[in-house]
Design goal:
Elements lengths: L2 H25 L2 H4 L5 E4 L12 E2 L13 E4 L4 E7 L12 E6 L18 E11 L6 E8 L4 E8 L2 E6 L5 E4 L8 E8 L2 E6 L2 E7 L6 E8 L12 E11 L1
Antiparallel strand pairs: 1-2, 1-5, 3-4, 4-15, 5-14, 6-11, 6-15, 7-8, 7-14, 8-9, 9-10, 11-12, 12-13
Length: 245
């Protein structure tokens, strides 16, 4: 075999390895699977800010991975959000979260909007709750929050999947949810209403005015060791698609 032939084969091998490694590395990024440009991530760890959960904003978030709390898993079908029960909670809560919070195009400015006006704010996502703690198997996977508290939460308790609204009654979506089942959620706010669809079926049309609002998505585990769950127990949500309008 000529030197040219040997060199070509060697070059081809190196080029293929470089391409495959680059492709694999990119595919392993949640930011390669989900559009995270208008979000920041809160993690239930305090490596950067002692006593407070870490926050990862753009542009760092685009290439960020945490093997324990936030990573891509094509076998599971998307970006994985995991929060262990012993994780560091945010201020005003006793529960841990691996969760996205809506931001503006400026990564240092938080989104905040009102449901009162005609302009519509929409979040569309496809997700599955894939794990819950055993003692208190409760996980929140999507929210609208206002300046003070949650306005609504899509919540799983055991097999009961429902919309929690304050101060109104819950709206049950199913009482037989199976872990790992993907559902499509669309939430739209504006014109003094919040509407929510599950798998393209309108489940809620709620007349409500709320100020300082923003979307949240991911895994907000509703348990901690004081609730009877041992360290190492966790909630987990996989998001396969995510879009803000």
């Amino acid at each position: 075999m000529s030197y040219l032939g040997t060199s070509y084969i060697a070059y081809a091998c190196v080029a293929w390895f470089t391409f495959f490694h680059t492709f694999s590395s990119t595919a392993e990024l949640p930011g390669a699977l989900l559009d995270l440009s208008l979000w920041k991530l809160t993690l239930p760890v305090d490596t950067a800010r002692k006593g407070r959960p870490d926050e990862i904003r753009q542009p760092e978030l685009a290439s960020f991975v945490d093997d324990n709390h936030f990573y891509a898993d094509t076998a599971k079908g998307g970006g994985v959000f995991r929060a262990y029960v012993e994780g560091i909670p945010t201020k005003g809560s006793t529960y841990p979260r691996s969760e996205l919070r809506e931001m503006t195009a400026d990564p240092d400015i938080r989104a905040q909007w009102s449901t009162e006006y005609p302009d519509l704010h929409t979040m569309i996502l496809q997700l599955a709750v894939t794990a819950t703690p055993s003692a208190k198997p409760h996980v929140v996977c999507a929210q609208i929050h206002n300046a003070e508290q949650d306005v609504l939460m899509v919540r799983l308790e055991g097999k009961k999947l429902f919309i929690e609204r304050k101060p109104l009654d819950d709206i049950f979506l199913t009482r037989r949810y199976e872990l790992g089942t993907f559902i499509k959620i669309k939430i739209q706010a504006g014109n003094k209403r919040i509407k929510l669809w599950i798998d393209n079926q309108l489940a809620m049309n709620w007349p409500v005015v709320a100020e300082g609002c923003y979307f949240k998505a991911g895994c907000y585990t509703q348990s901690n060791p004081s609730r009877g769950d041992r360290k190492g127990a966790y909630g987990e949500v996989v998001i396969s698609s995510l879009k803000l309008d």
